[in-house]
């Protein structure tokens, strides 16, 4: 055995352990726990590191006597580094979403994107690869050669086998590479842990994410490759376009000014009928249609709270909801109401609508029946607001906030029909049929169509989508953070499992004896209690908040004017100024200006990737374009903030 290699391995291991203990405490804790398991014989080693031909390291799998490399691991590392190129089309995550440039929503950014598109060549190469991912580390010899070639500034090392990763500490000088680059690790992580690690990697220098190169070892199972795809498409700027947020944040201003009732989410409504009577929340998942007869039979025994998306199904089955919720601010959501053949069956219904709701929907009903809530904005600061992923999870959170003591969920599957692959009940506006057997290994993941698995309510696991998973996470967060011990929630859906809820099969539900409730009187009491606590218009404190917002935007506009007047001698100076602009304008944690910060944050997260990538393209002589890009960016920011300011000034 080569004594030099042996001694070198021991020294590398000791220095790596010191690095992880000081700088990567989460990974170090896992390594320590693994060492404890080894030392106490709780774990039987699967591998053994060897020195082959007194020249290179390899790993033997003890049960099969097979070798990981079965070749010179140093030569393998050279070949890997040689295979990596600087082109933007091979082994790369494209992390951005393209928007049409000829629509009103993109008018602020279309000049920037059009300018970039006209200057970019067909085949493009990086000047420098800033971010790189390694799926599977082996002994890590290829990490060293990759870093020598790329000198990337940030790496994400993903390895599910902690024993194999531990062996890599003898070979790969992580401590040395960490002096030259930022290292992120995902070692022996489940899906939840990996999600957090991937998000940290993506959030770090987010403007370098536009194209992220990666290498995957042949022995890697590909699971984390797909899970990283999911995190890419789930980035906020890919889900909620900044201009959409801006428009929907402006809308509540006028509604407050028009004296609509705003629902008080911060009171407990101690004597409310919602406290003393069971409540049935109806959503549009596949379980709704399956249990429609059960709902019809029992509708006089519950307060029925229905999402607007199920109204046509309820109307067709002569089921009258006591409360209807709506959150979607897009015009397409008006179809939930347009398809109803009459609104008469809703004449005694209360409406809990988001203050972003389209004007068309609000004008369908008596203003007295409508109670608005804020999600995202905070104009009615004394009334509270809600933040959740979809109308289903928002309605769930809303009912917890209103103090419902006994809640039953039907149609809140947040999962596909496990036989047909249907996303919703058949009459839903956005229903799709997805392939349960699909195994997407492509470089793209469709947010609304990608089929994944999650914990099941009645079974070990169920098929769901990436979009639904966000809502599941939102409900679980509400159950942990807001649900009180005296609140009981029963999940009747053949769908996803929710934390702190009790699975209840419909067959068992049928056996439960519920008494009919006198809804007419109780609804009057509920209406009176909610109306008494509601608020209209802007009070003195809220007017002061509007003034504060105006002053804040005015200061931001001055910062942008200063940015526009700057002159830059290099792309690094220019981008340093953009990073500073991002921090100065969008990272303010004051909750009273959170909405402004969020709009700008999503704008920066979207547009900075295009700008950085453009300046990091080999074929571009960037210095001649910096001044024009800076001017276009400053104009876009000025337009966004001026639009908001003008709407504030109208009030």
Summarize the structure.
This protein is an alpha/beta fold and about 650 residues long. Helices cover about 45% and strands about 15% of the residues.
Folded structure, characterized:
This protein is 44% helix and 13% strand. By secondary structure, the protein is of the alpha/beta class. It folds into 3 domains: 198 residues, Rossmann fold (3-Layer(aba) Sandwich), CATH 3.40.50; 274 residues, sialyltransferase cstii, chain A (Alpha-Beta Complex); 111 residues. A 9-stranded parallel sheet has the order 9-14-13-12-11-10-15-18-19. A 5-stranded mixed sheet has the order 4-8-5-6-7. Helix 18 packs parallel to helix 19, helix 22 runs antiparallel to helix 25 and helix 24 runs antiparallel to helix 25. The longest helix has 26 residues. It is globular. It starts with a helix and ends with a helix.
Name the beta content range. 5-15%
- The helical percent reads 40-55%
Q: What is the number of beta strands? A: 19
- Radius of gyration from the CA trace? 28 Å
- The CATH architecture assignment of the largest domain turns out to be Alpha-Beta Complex
Contiguous runs where pLDDT drops below 50 for at least 5 residues: 439-447
CATH topology of the largest domain: sialyltransferase cstii, chain A
- Indicate the structural class: alpha/beta
